Structure prediction request, 210 residues.
Amino acid sequence: METSQPEIRYLGRSDYYSTWQQMKDFTDQRDAETPDQIWITEHDPVFTQGLNGKPEHLRDTGDIPVIQIDRGGQVTYHGPGQLVIYCMLNIVRLGLGVRALVTHIENSIIAFLADYDIASAARADAPGVYVSDAKIAALGLRIRKGCCYHGLSLNLDMDLSPFSRINPCGFKNLRVTQMSDFSIHLSLQQAGLELCDHIISNLYGGKVDG
Prediction:
């Protein structure tokens, strides 16, 4: 079955909780013909705790809210200066299993970072993308009705200190990094559209329309 390219939505800064609700609503209401969508956004400071999240990984959350959500994985942090891309994809229509989907998304992030001469890699024991031993991108998905939602976060130019209040993704003393540490400064929209180019090329064999 031929799969058309996804619709790209640029949300700018968005509220985490309401965006999550919109993702769930979109997934619940879509049918076999509904085009896929990819949303580009960033959030105000928030910790999100996945379905398997353990309380001990929330070390000192302070005044940053914690939201229990329905993706896989443990706790992570979202905040201004971090690119978040939500992937509402019909993975049955794409002919992908979950592991292949994760690999495609990780490879898209790796290729995007390579465009800026940042060498990165995935890890078999922990989804996401790493520069040496420091995590630069996180990944978490939920599958429902043969479709996925949630997605990835990539650190662009942000305050990384809230990561020290948690065990990121359930790993103690996990270092984090961001593109600005390598003197790369991109707007949210530019980084989002360029990364979407890689995701669409990997999953659909094309580039962002327009």
In short: The chain has a mean pLDDT of 92.
